[in-house]
């Protein structure tokens, strides 16, 4: 039989191991290891990230969305299904004009007034849609040294690929060195602050210190002057001197990377590398050890599955030229979190269905990689030559990218369903390719008590609303769990409370299983008594409450069926005992009431009526 003492031992015995490796944060959560101040900045930035702008606050006059979170919404800060439109003119001789004078190349689809609504100019003969990219793990990606990205260009892992760094100028350092771009479909942005300033102006119409002007509708400066009523720059400092773009930068920089479960060992991951997918989707980088970086970001091994270079994708590209990136080049999108990404591809052409159908189906990811002129054609061909079983192993690996530890059903919520699946798997040996591998936190091949202790760190059910999750309540001994299902007994069936508590603090409850079938278990619990004092329990076959002192009722019918006077309360004035039903029926009704005596005063608890099959 398991006891609360053994629960505490489990947690204590594994504390040093778990301190070295905490469960991975869920998507949209902050990085592990942030200081209290950094976490406060993350939360404040999230508020601004989800803030819905009004025209009076500087929105527009032309814009795409009213909030950062409107696009980055799966989860907040993640990717999304929102589209923006790019346009330009291609002369047929390899030259591309972004039609800047006509508002290009980005179309702002909305306006604060129809008079300044933008449209794709008639001269534009090239248009493309782009879906929202993810900001998850953005601070970690930003912290990859330029040289580490450039090394993938100068020393490619395979003769089949020839990715290029897109060297760009950060908006915050216009006189500084060029940096390796890494964000956006064309790797056109190198830093999170540039991303924030550029998106605030182009997507919200919210001018700021990095881009201190608003866009003119289709280049019409007269319309801009007519409808832009808020002075530029519209962003400004708060009481601490931080601007909107600084606060949303904090949120994005401190967003955790998507989890990967299991973290290693899947057969599909090996196949993914063997067929050449990892030639572009580089498995891992180590962030810079620059002492100016936060400890939660500095010198961390991350697995984004991207080289952050731009590659020739042939006819599967968007044909929009941006900076030094030509129309057939696109940045390798990071694959972390891909299990929840729908739609896929730069323009969202792969949409709906399952991850398997989005990868393997007609027109899916593999077919797009195999497009005419694509650098990825050799790896796509190698993948297509795999057996169906091996292809599914790769899909299973991709499904691990974004999956939380302990999330049995993959819904990103760790609840009773996942706990039940964990308990069913506990004690078994499982490899990384098995469904139960999500429970093997320490990846030692077994689902055991060490994994349970890790699960307790991130379990999300709090049935008694005490601010601590149920698993922690049970493992620490705070809550009783007589039936050993790791759900606090007080949240399960409680025998009827008949009331009649007196003027004291003594309280009684019996909760857990209904004790009417053989072996059912519940906890008899008394609280509020005198520390280390004696406890008396009166048992009757029915209730007949009457005052035995001016303030205290005796509830069980006399003559009493039994009086138990062998209990002692613990140092907190509490007593717990397990009640287990027996095989002899039918069930009988008993009335229980607890009492303590201080030497001068009796304190009687409320009474509880219990239906019980006895031994």
Summarize this entry quickly.
This protein is of the alpha+beta class.
In terms of DSSP E residues, the strand content is 15-25%
What average pLDDT do the residues reach? 95
The number of distinct β-strands equals 23
* Poorly predicted sequence stretches spanning 5 or more consecutive residues: 3-19
- Please identify the structural class as seen in this structure: alpha+beta
Distance between the termini: 19 Å
Strand arrangement across the biggest beta sheet: 14-23-22-17-20
Helix proportion range: 10-25%
User: Major beta sheet, specifics?
Assistant: 5 strands, antiparallel
Q: How large, in whole angstroms, is the Cα Rg?
A: 32 Å
- Give the oligomeric state of the chains in this entry, treating copies of one chain as homo and distinct chains as hetero: single chain
Outline: elongated
Alpha plus pi helix count: 16
Describe the structure.
- By secondary structure, the protein is of the alpha+beta class.
- It is built from 16 helices and 23 strands.
- It has helices spanning 4-20, 36-49, 68-71, 138-142, 146-154, 192-204, 221-227, 244-253, 267-274, 355-360, 365-369, 377-384, 388-399, 416-425, 449-458, 470-476, and strands at residues 62-63, 83-90, 96-97, 106-107, 110-111, 126-131, 167-168, 179-180, 285-286, 301-302, 310-312, 329-331, 493-494, 497-499, 507-512, 521-527, 534-540, 543-547, 553-556, 562-568, 575-580, 584-597, 602-614.
- The strands form eight sheets. It has a five-stranded antiparallel sheet, with no helix packed on it. Strands 2, 3, 4 and 6 form a four-stranded antiparallel sheet that branches. It has a four-stranded antiparallel sheet with strand order 13-15-16-21, with no helix packed on it.
- The two termini are 19 Å apart.
